[in-house]
Amino acid sequence: MEPEEIAALRTLYVFTPPTGESWGLTYTGLEAVLRERDPEAFIRVEEGTDGPVTGSSMHFGITVDEEQLEGMALLSPEGVSVTDCTVALAAGVVAWLRSAVVPQGAAVTFNTEWGLEAELPDAAVPDADRQGITAAFVDHLVATGDLD
How far apart are CA 34 and CA 41, in angstroms? Predict the structure, then answer.
């Protein structure tokens, strides 16, 4: 598969703090930064069956590069995911996370639905510009196999 074909593939991306670390993510805080971007943003918190945190999830819409994406956040395990994302859109999500959600200097790890299915471990998002992050995401997709 050609690099531009790989870059156009869409999958779920999952962004988390490294094992043993936390971003201090809260639904209230995430909702505030989402509403700052778009006061009309779709946001829904589902409490789950275990109370306000365990088993709960936040579903939201976010626009990246003029494309509407669906996201979900969990407090336990902590992280944010976006569905149906290309590598470039996922790099845009990381840029937003780093600027508005993740504490300054905190690390971000990632995986994809395909990486999880291939049992690939979470990988660090490189400290790079969007082009460098996009390249790392392409390399990850290749590592999942079966792209021929």
Answer: 7
- For the stretch 86-135, pLDDT in tens is 999 999 999 999 999 999 999 999 999 999 999 999 999 999 999 999 99
- The closest of 136, 114, 141, 112 to 125, measured between CA atoms, is 136
- Closest CA relative to residue 26, chosen from 81, 78, 88, 96: 78
d(CA 101, CA 2): 34
Q: Is the pTM of this model over 0.90?
A: yes
How far apart CA 115 and CA 143 sit, in angstroms, is 8
SS (H, E, C) 83-134: EEECHHHHHHHHHHHHHHHCCCCCCCEEEEHHHHHCCCCCEECCCCCHHHHH
Question: pLDDT tens, 43-77?
Answer: 999 876 544 455 689 999 999 999 999 999 999 89
Q: Contact 113/93 with Cβ under 8 angstroms?
A: no
Rg (CA), the chain: 15
> Is there a contact between 57 and 72 (Cβ–Cβ < 8 Å)?
yes
Query: Which pLDDT score is estimated for 100?
Result: 96
Cis omega (within 30 of 0) on the bond before 77? Answer: yes
